[in-house]
């Protein structure tokens, strides 16, 4: 009967605990004073780009490099270990709602004195054995929600770990794609420089023949040799840069000694761009903003933990077991022992220690609130910058193409004028330099245009799937 009464009391107390309010403020998503949409004249489009946005470039070699970066890089292995740690911390936090049961065993053998002040009566053994085996438990009743707030904080930190992993993956993918685009840009510049070197070598051979016939001076030969040497020096520098970028790709993908076959930058298509006036609500997909909000959730929960620490702590303790002189009687009914306890601890004087902890938690929450708003403003700026870069590089490409066409025409005319004796070789060198610069500028502008599209993918959290009416709340962490 006593056991049934005790069990009923525990159930009642548990129900009372569940009905108690939770101390501390509930999380509310902060408002960010951002414009409703982005400004700009980006190309209108409605194409959807999935999470594996790099596949929009249609390059199997790039796809393989990004896959290696996701799986083999040290950063990828580190983030997997961080996720395992966060999940284990969450399981530990959830365990506070279950009582911990410990099994304890004690044994002692002692002798009492027969010459002490108290006489030892006949029949009382001088040497005594005491054996004890008991299971004990202790359970804190979460009246004020301190434990629940603690679990809420750990859950937010676990979600933050998943989001940190998403940030790492997005960073790895964008860094790999940017390095690949730079490599392809260098390949295109190498091709243009080799063409220029070939043309200047042919020009040098021609001028040497003309000089041997007395048609031109040695000055023209020296100028042609200098132009050819300049192209050769550019070629050597570009080859050095390509080796550096290739090693960088090897480090990103966890493949030291990686060799990438040369490719054509112009073969890479331009990925789709979002519609004009892309709503800023799409920024909710960014894992860094969602991470900043989860940090806010955790800090907000810790305010409740700190405030609840100033209130009484109520706990139950109990034990059940057996105690006897002989091991054979340890589990007999007469050896049974048990206890049930109730404890209450109320802070009376702590010199303001607990209040100071609560103030620290509140100040930490204000810091993270400011950090969240700063991150939201930075995210909006990054998207706007990427959209502006895409739009302006697209406009510049047409202008540079016109410049290149004019430079090629001017070079041909200058060469014909020189061969006819109407102009000096200096005009040919100047026209050749302008043509070469225009070819390199066109390559670099195409690389910049592709790079801006990667920046946009990253700024939007990795592609976009929603139409203009984007959702306004961040996706929940896994």
CATH superfamily: Outer membrane efflux proteins (OEP)
CATH architecture classification name: Up-down Bundle
| Overall pLDDT | 83
The total tally of domains equals 1
Low-confidence stretches: 1-19, 467-478
- Give the helix/strand class: alpha+beta
| CATH topology grouping | Outer membrane efflux proteins (OEP)
Q: What gross morphology would you assign?
A: elongated
Helicity range:
55-70%
**Number of discrete helical segments:** 8
Task: Describe this structure as you would to a colleague.
The chain contains eight helices and four strands; from the N terminus they run αααββαααββαα. It is α+β, with helices and mostly antiparallel strands and 478 residues long. 58% of the residues lie in helices and 10% in strands. It has one domain: Outer membrane efflux proteins (OEP), CATH 1.20.1600.10. The protein has helices spanning 2-19, 60-72, 74-94, 146-212, 218-253, 287-308, 353-419, 425-459; strands at residues 100-111, 127-141, 313-324, 336-345. It is elongated. A four-stranded antiparallel β-sheet has the order 1-2-3-4.
